[in-house]
Every structure is written in C-alpha cells, then in structure tokens.
Amino acid sequence: MFLQKLSVINYKSLKQIELDLSPKMNCFFGDNGMGKTNLLDAVFYLSFCKSHTNPVDTQNIRHDEEFFVIQGFYVDGERPEEIYCGFKRRQKKHFRRNKKEYERLSDHIGLIPLVLVSPADNELIQGGSEERRKFMDMVVSQYDREYLDALIRYNKALMQRNALLKETAYSDDTLFDIWEEQMTETGAVIYEKRCRFVDEFTPGFREYYDYICRSSEQVSLCYESHLKHDDLSVLLKNSREKDRIIGFTRKGVHKDDLTMLLGEYPIKRIGSQGQNKTYLIALKLAQFNFLKKTSARTPILLLDDIFDKLDAKRVEQIIQLVAQDTFGQIFITDTNREHLLEILNKIGSDYKIFQMKDGEVKKLTSERDG
C-alpha cells in the first residue's frame, strides 16, 4: 500500500497542500519550523486517527481557523482506498473510509500500517515506562485486533477501578470484584501477546543494529511485568487497601516496562548520543519488518529529521537499506538537501523532492526512474 495523493487544509501550520507522491521516496527539505514534521504528522493521522505529537484535536487546527481536513488517496494492490478526516471546533470528528463513516475509530487501526522514526523517539530510551508500553501497543495493535480490543477494555476497567479507589465512603467490594475480573481477563491477553511480541521481535532488532552499527556491541530487550510471578486477580485483591490510600492502581499490565539493554546495562545509563540514535533507528526498522511479516501490507515509513548526530557513513547505510525493494513508500525530512540527493543519485532510487517554507510545499524535481 502507498499514498498516491495527499490533501491537507488548516492542519497545524499547513494552510492548504495538494501533493502527488512517489510510490518510493518522497524527500522534504527546509529549515526548522517550516512545516516538515507537521506534514508527516498528517500522514501519521490518516493511519492512527490522531496526531503523533498532540492528541488534542482543537490544538491541531491552524491558528485562527475553525476546522482542519486531511485526505489521503491510497493504492492497495490494484484497489484504491480513500481516507478522510475532518474536524471542526465544538463538533465531532469525522473519519471515513471510501466515504463511509467509521462507527469506532479503533476499527481503522491496522488498515494502513505505518512506522514513524523521529527525534521524539529518544523518549523511548530516556522517558518513563509509559513511552515503551506505547511502543509495544502501537506495534501489536496494528496487526492483532484481539490485542487492541483487550487493551481498550482493560483501560476502561482500570479507569473504573481508579474511580472507586477515590470514593472514600465506598465500602461494598462487589464493584471492585467486577472491574478486577475484567482487568484480570484482558490483562492476561495483553501480557501473553506482549511476551510473544518481544520474543519474536528481538532477533530482527539485533540484525538491524548490527547492520547499521558494524560493531561487536550486543543489544537486547527485556519485558518486565507484574504478571511474570503472580496472577493479576491476586495482585489486585491484595493491594486494594493500599491502593485506596494512594488513590490509584499500582499493579497490572499498565505498569509494564521494556528494558532496553546495550551489553548488560540499560542503554539509558551508558549510551552515547550516537549509540542511542542507532539503537532507536534499528528498533523502528525492526518494527517495520515485523509489521510487514504480520500483516498483508508493506508499511509506509516516515523518517523525520533522523540524520542529526549520525555520521555520513551511517546515513548512507540507512538510505541504501530503505531504498531496497523490501521497503515500500518512504517519506524523509531533512535540512541538508545536497547530502541526501548525492546518496539518492548514487543508489539510483526513484524519488520526488519537495521544498517546504512557511507551511507551503513546492515540488523541486521530476520523479526519477531507478
């Protein structure tokens, strides 16, 4: 699947954009703050029904405007797919596939698999456990409907249990039993599928790291969960009184973590900027390969300003890798046009190149046949 045409109106800093895109490489150049990241975020929105950087839709409308529209025209094999999103202040968001409104936005997740690599990924290493859970959830939800449904149900039950914990006058345990039973049932599904994902994902991640790094450094991922040692129903019942004191649920898969190791130590503690960057890019390329294997479609790959803090050799290795036939449509943003064009011309990949300035896009070159 690839995005053939993109239309954007009033999304963040983008006023009105109409793009015809290459099925392979699409490169966007411009100074910082010109709208490159916002353009990729619009493509991300069409896959996940939300922004990658700001989940509050009213804040994603261009300043002084009343609405935004994002529309994508895709090609899936021989079949066209039209995805539309429109949002107006103080009104409901509309999300449609081929002019038919979705009853649940979650039904759209997985239709257009996508992987985004961006500077914000550094939070996967430096941030809290929530960032790493989001990473697991985003990958698994794109190919496993049972997982996504379990995650939605678990979070609803968790919210209800937390609400009960805050009701100091509440003494009947019946409702606690109901919500904890639902958390136990769905939590078991989430835990099992996360375990399987990490086991199957890690070998590919190591291969990509070795390819980019060209060193003897060893990398690995370790999934940590309360459910490794105890049944969740027991954990919740035993912690109920303490949870009432602090007002939230301390045990469960919503507290899981994914420890990222370089050698025997967390990369968060010992990794240099270059090692962190390589680690994250390898992680996302492995995510791409994993999604391609587990779904019937080749994901779209978005590379947002990823070449900062990487030497020229590693940049060239990454571009050569994603230009191969195993990868599909690629979107790249950068400030250094000449360097990337030199690499693209060397490898002979098909591409289109655009310049961005003040939220507007100008096509600079013709499409090149590889």
Largest sheet: 6 strands, antiparallel
Outline type:
globular
What percent of residues adopt helix (DSSP H or I)?
40-55%
Oligomer: single chain
Q: Report the strand count.
A: 15
Q: Report the β-strand fraction as a percent range.
A: 15-25%
The low-confidence parts are: none
Distance between the amino and carboxyl termini: 19 Å
- Radius of gyration based on Cα positions: 22 Å
Structural class given helices, strands, pairing?
Answer: alpha/beta
Describe this structure in words.
The chain has 11 helices and 15 strands. It has 370 residues and is α/β, with parallel strands linked by helices.
Key terms for this structure?
single chain; 370 residues; alpha/beta; 6-stranded mixed beta sheet
What is this structure's SSE topology?
Layout (H helix, E strand, L loop, with lengths): L1 E10 L2 E7 L4 E5 L6 H13 L18 E10 L2 E10 L5 E4 L2 E2 L12 E4 L4 H5 L2 H13 L3 H22 L7 H40 L5 E6 L7 H7 L1 H7 L10 E6 L2 E2 H4 L2 H22 L5 E5 L7 H11 L7 E5 L2 H11 L3 E7 L2 E4 L7
Parallel strand pairs: 3-13, 3-14, 8-12, 12-13
Antiparallel strand pairs: 1-2, 1-4, 4-5, 5-6, 6-7, 9-10, 10-11, 14-15
Helix pairs in contact: 4-5, 5-6, 5-9
